[in-house]
Structures are given as structure tokens and as C-alpha cells.
Design brief:
With 358 residues, this protein is of the alpha/beta class. It contains nine helices and ten strands.
């Protein structure tokens, strides 16, 4: 009689909140009444309240203005997550937590216990330490794969440096060892735009819209913008599509995000530097990473270049880890890690099957 294999039952994804210990920030200040908002998708019976120890965890780290909701309505990686997809909740526990200092449920500006916005500065270390506290609270000791793009990639690398024994595999997309002067410069201009808004700091409107428009131009590449926002037909008076596109992107962010949180996420990116030692250490933080890694850059990325990906790869190899490198070909620039779904799926599958460190 043939063996009948019953399909694994997948539960519905859920959101949850965690109460965490106070967190001292790297550049001063303490987050009290610390909370984290999370998102979870796994097999039936595996929940944030009762995680099953035999289910491998995939930890997703969102980018600058993302949220913990990675799939479903408004999910930032929805085409990649779900039954039969690259990240399958029947095979892995899919976990994402809202960044510290953001505005989607975790401790941030205006939330009780969070330091006053004008007196606090966030770093990628702070966001990573908050994630480690959340993993501790959930009872998740080892993570099968951790991945994220841009700021999410910075935090992914920082996690692997802070707790090398906990992270088996990492997939940093479109990111770097440290924020370059180019990245910091763009963030500086965006910050000055916010501060010129008449309502700064509590009621920033048009300033946030324009800061977002500036950022979108750095996230994209000329070929992709030309393809999606072509010049109007000669003789029409309809204006240029790219102008209305940027206005639309600015309004979208103004309607869903807070300027104070935006500034703090920019600061976390600016202060990212794994070439510096962690407190109490003498070696560069990146030298602590032991996770197997797949480093992915985008060939048209204006913010995080192929040279930066090569430097990251070299440092990870020097630390003794197994490291592979891939380049994502795209006309869309930096944001390809949120657009190029057919190419991203195989990269995630490859990362899931990297040989774990000894």
C-alpha cells in the first residue's frame, strides 16, 4: 500500500506585540516600556506564544519605511512569501519585526518611554539589539536565514556581527559594510528638507513629500524611469509623467509615515559602520560574522555599488565564512530588491540552502 503523505497545514499569518526589556541606545538615551510589533507566518500550531523548536526561522528585516507586514495586503515582499513560493510557511517560520524607531507599532517617536526625538539618535546597532531582544522573548535561539535590503541589509549584517552563534545564513541585498559619503550626503539633504517645513518637527507635510521625492530618484535608475515614465507625445500639454509619479510617491509616504521616524531611520543608516569595533572589542565588527552569506548587489544601484558589494564579500571571506556573490541585473536601480520578483525567488532559494557554518 503506497505511503500517503499528508500536506503540512499552514496557519493564517498574524501580527503580535512584545513587551521587551529597556534598551540603552548606542548614542545615548534609553528606550523604556519597550515594545516591538511583529508579523508571523508558519505551520498550524506554531505561534508567537508557543513556537515549536523544530521549525527553522527565516527572519526578514524591512527597509527604511517598511513595516513588519511582509506578505498579504500591503506586504512588501508578498510575491515571494506563501505556500509554494520561495519563502514557504509550510517549510519555514517567516518572521518580521518593525524596526525600532519606526511608526508601525514598535517603540518610536511619540510612544511612551521612547526618548524625545530631538535628544535621540538611532544606529543600526540599536535596531539589531532590539531585534535580538525580541528573538529572546520569543525563545528563538538560532535563525536559519536572515535577509533584508538597504537599511534592512545593514541590520542583517549587524545582527550576524552582534550574535555570530545565532545566525546561520545571511542574504544582504543592496547594502554595504558602512554608509558611504554618497549615502550620508543624500540623507543629509533629505533631513534639511524636512527641517525647512513650517510644521517641523511635529507636523511635517510638504517637507516629507519632497524628501521622499528626492529619495525615490536615488532608489531608481534612469533606464527604469524612462521605461515606466516615458516622455509625453509631442504636442500634448499633459506634463511629464515622472513629475506626477514623484508627487504620487510623496503623498503616499506623507499619508502613512511620520517625519520624526523618517529622520531616525535615516540616522540609523548614516551611523552604520561595521568596520569599527563593537564596544569592548578591538577588531572590526564585520570580522565577528560567522554566518554563510550570499551577497547580492544590483547592477544599476546608485546608492550601493558593485565595489561596495565586493568589499563586503572580501571582509566576510577574511572572517572565515562561506560567501557567495550574485549581481541582480535590473533597469530599476536600488529598488530592484522590491521589484524584480522572478529573479529574487531563486536567490532566496539559494540562500536557504547555503551550507551552514560548522
Amino acid at each position: 500500500m503506497p505511503l500517503i503523505v499528508m500536506p503540512t497545514v499552514v496557519a493564517a499569518p498574524c501580527s503580535f506585540d512584545l513587551a521587551l526589556p529597556d534598551l540603552a541606545l548606542a548614542r545615548g538615551g534609553v528606550v523604556r516600556s519597550h515594545r516591538a510589533r511583529g508579523w508571523w507566518w508558519s505551520r498550524a500550531g506554531d505561534s508567537p506564544e508557543h513556537p515549536q523548536p523544530d521549525i527553522p526561522t527565516v527572519l526578514l528585516v524591512h527597509a527604511l519605511t517598511g513595516s513588519a507586514v511582509a506578505a498579504g495586503k500591503d506586504g512588501w515582499w508578498d510575491p515571494l512569501i506563501g505556500p509554494g513560493k520561495a519563502l514557504d510557511p509550510a517549510r519555514h517560520r517567516i518572521l518580521c519585526l518593525n524596526n525600532l524607531g519606526s511608526c508601525y507599532g514598535s517603540s518610536g517617536p511619540g510612544v511612551e518611554g521612547f526618548p524625545a526625538h530631538q535628544t535621540v539618535d538611532l544606529t543600526s546597532l540599536d535596531i539589531a539589539r532590539a531585534l535580538l531582544l525580541a528573538l529572546d522573548q520569543l525563545g528563538i535561539g538560532r535563525v536559519h536565514l536572515t535577509t533584508g535590503g538597504s537599511l534592512g541589509g545593514m541590520v542583517t549584517l549587524t545582527l550576524a556581527a552582534l550574535a555570530p552563534e545565532r545566525f546561520e545564513r545571511i542574504l544582504p541585498f543592496a547594502t554595504s559594510l558602512s554608509a558611504s559619503a554618497w549615502v550620508v550626503g543624500w540623507n543629509h539633504v533629505a533631513r534639511q528638507i524636512l527641517r525647512l517645513d513650517p510644521g517641523y518637527p511635529d507636523n511635517v507635510g510638504r517637507g516629507l513629500e519632497i524628501a521622499r521625492q528626492l529619495a525615490v530618484l536615488t532608489y531608481r535608475a534612469e533606464p527604469g524611469l524612462d521605461a515606466r515614465q516615458p516622455r509625453p507625445v509631442s504636442g500634448t500639454d499633459a506634463g511629464y509623467p515622472v513629475q506626477s509619479y514623484l508627487e504620487h510617491q510623496g503623498r503616499k509616504l506623507r499619508n502613512r509615515f511620520a517625519a520624526q521616524a523618517y529622520e531616525l531611520q535615516l540616522a540609523a543608516m548614516d551611523h552604520h559602520d561595521l568596520l569599527q569595533p563593537l564596544p569592548g572589542d578591538t577588531m572590526p565588527a564585520i570580522s565577528r560574522v560567522r554566518a554563510s552569506a550570499l551577497v547580492v548587489d544590483v547592477d544599476t544601484d546608485q546608492l550601493f555599488t558593485a565595489a561596495q558589494a565586493a568589499a563586503l564579500t572580501a571582509h566576510l571571506r577574511a572572517a572565515g565564512g562561506r560567501v557567495e556573490r550574485a549581481t541582480l541585473a535590473s533597469i530599476h536601480g536600488h529598488d530592484a530588491f522590491l521589484i524584480e520578483w522572478p529573479a529574487l525567488g531563486p536567490l532566496l532559494t539559494k540562500a536557504l540552502h547555503l551550507h551552514a557554518p560548522a
